[in-house]
Amino acid sequence: MGSRWTFNWVMFLGFLSSCVYGVGVNWGALATHKLPQKTVVQMLKDNGITRMKLFDADENTLSALAGSNIEVMVAIPNYRLKEMNNYNSAKEWVGSNIARYNFMGGVTIKYVAVGNEPFFGPFNGTYKNVTFPALRNIQNALNEAGVGDSIKVTVPLNADVYSTPQNNPVPSAGRFRRDIRGIMTQIVRFLNKSNAPLTINIYPFLSLYGSVTFPKKYAFFDGGFSITDNGIKYTNAFDANFDTLVSSLKAVGFGDLPIIVGETGWPTDGDKNANIGDAYRYYKGLLPRLAGN
Fold first, then answer.
1. Is 71 one of the annotated active-site residues of the chain?
2. Where are the strands (E) in 68-204, listed by range?
3. Distance between the two ends of the chain, CA-based, in angstroms?
4. Are 205 and 279 in contact (CB under 8 A)?
5. In whole angstroms, what is the distance from residue 270 CA to residue 6 CA?
6. CA distances in angstroms from 255 to 7, 10, 183, 190, 249, listed in the order given
7. How many Cβ atoms sit within 10 Å of the Cβ of residue 281?
8. Are 74 and 56 within 8 A, CB to CB?
9. Known catalytic membership, residue 263
10. Largest CB tally within 10 Å, which of 153, 201, 228, 231?
């Protein structure tokens, strides 16, 4: 997404089969002015943040989160996915980054993100054949370590893993991308068997950024543009994007798979539509919508 953009990240943890699970934030390590990890954790607690998604399993960050009761999603970076295709390496990673924090007063780890948007188009298939074996090995290693019932794997995906035909661009026509459809079917079948969720990152801003014809009003939640699909009226791209994923899951036989929205947000710098006013408008619509289930 480019280092020139300043994003306010939000994480929404929710499930298809139930009401909203909770709202949290993403904590990335790339910053020019880093705060001490303990300061960040206290700031989160002071603001009532109870859920956190990380992009790695940094020891200092996890140590700062110990005893905080903040539910955490730790992550394995893409460059380590091939390494995790070796089961012994997967067991070693689980021992070093999960089991060591699994004690009373430790870190409340709920999920392990295996990669980050590994099928994103610009990666040109680099992680296509190593993501599912890594996912399977990590969950099996969690099971072997005795924490598999409470800690589940997931894969945070970019929304480009699914699409709709140009002649029928509605959510019900959503299908996984042809080049990864087989792999995605394997992944969701395994997640379903493991009672684990799929994670998706949804950014209406990126639709606006990527197309001069995309209606700006559709990126927000306050109306002004809509589409109708089989009698369902969609007034914003977030809902339509989410349901496109649901349709894609249904098409491969797993329409009831739990879904986490891992990232959504609006940038405040770096593009003509990246500003504080539009970011405020996006969150003003998003957060009450999540709170209202």
1. no
2. 71-76, 108-114, 152-154, 156-158, 162-163, 175-176, 198-201
3. 29
4. no
5. 7
6. 31, 25, 16, 14, 5
7. 16
8. yes
9. yes
10. 153
Percentage of the chain exceeding pLDDT 90: 83
Q: What's the mean per-residue pLDDT of the chain?
A: 91
User: pLDDT at position 11, please?
Assistant: 57
Rg of the chain over Cα atoms, rounded to whole angstroms, equals 19
| Residue 30: pLDDT band with limits 50, 70, 90 | confident
Q: How many residues does the chain have?
A: 293
Structure token pair of residue 53: 């998604």
> How many CB atoms lie under 10 A from the CB of residue 181?
16
Q: 166: which residues sit within 8 A by CB, 6+ positions away?
A: none
Q: Considering 71, 83, 144, 263, which one is annotated as catalytic?
A: 263
Over the range 86-124, which residues count as b (16 or more CB within 10 Å of their CB) and which as e?
eeebbbebbeebbbebbeeeebbbbbbbbbbbbbbeeee
3-state secondary structure of 85: helix
pLDDT at res. 125? 96
CA 66 to centroid of chain Cα atoms? 23
Q: What is the pTM of this model?
A: 0.92
Dist. CA 131–CA 113, nearest whole Å:
11
- Tens digits of per-residue pLDDT, 69-128? 999 999 999 999 999 999 999 999 999 999 999 998 999 999 999 999 999 999 999 999
Contacts of 133 (CB under 8 A, 6+ apart): 84, 85
